[in-house]
């Protein structure tokens, strides 16, 4: 029985020593600075700062917002948004280049003389060749406009879907 009591006392002594060491560590971990409205508690390990105030006869500590961390988070968000917008810009530039190439291919069959008005034709009278050229030009214009408005509709739909 006596060995059990000694073991129990020895265990209690060791536990009290461990708690005392933890208490010393906790006192070294936090620093207090007096302010007008209470105290600032600084955690020396994590760097977190809390404002401690006496409210209704009880001390309460609330974390102080970290402005630097908030700025870094906002910078990260903006950096991510810039990357997304750059990728979207590259995508749109590729679409514009494809439309430009299609327009160049469509214009290859039309010469400068076909587009320029003839001075020897009487005013007000169109020849069969003139009418065919006008029809080809109008067909090309119609196709180009349909492609353009189709692209604008796609862009508007994508923009509206990204806002939601």
Automatic annotation (TrEMBL):
Keywords: Coiled coil, Signal. Residues 68-102 form a coiled coil. The keyword Coiled coil applies. Residues 1-20 form the signal peptide. This is Uncharacterized protein.
């Amino acid at each position: 029985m006596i060995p059990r009591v000694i073991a129990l006392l020895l265990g209690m002594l060791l536990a009290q020593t461990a708690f005392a060491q933890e208490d010393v560590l906790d006192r070294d971990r936090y620093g207090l600075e007096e302010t007008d409205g209470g105290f600032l508690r600084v955690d020396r390990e994590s760097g977190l700062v809390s404002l401690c105030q006496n409210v209704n006869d009880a001390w309460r500590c609330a974390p102080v917002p970290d402005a630097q961390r908030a700025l870094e988070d906002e910078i990260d968000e903006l950096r991510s948004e810039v990357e997304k917008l750059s990728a979207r810009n590259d995508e749109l530039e590729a679409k514009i280049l494809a439309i430009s190439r299609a327009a160049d291919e469509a214009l290859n069959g039309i010469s400068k003389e076909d587009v320029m008005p003839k001075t020897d034709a009487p005013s007000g009278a169109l020849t069969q060749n003139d009418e065919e050229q006008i029809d080809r030009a109008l067909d090309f214009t119609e196709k180009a406009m349909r492609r353009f408005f189709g692209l604008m509709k796609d862009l508007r739909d994508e923009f509206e879907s990204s806002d939601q």
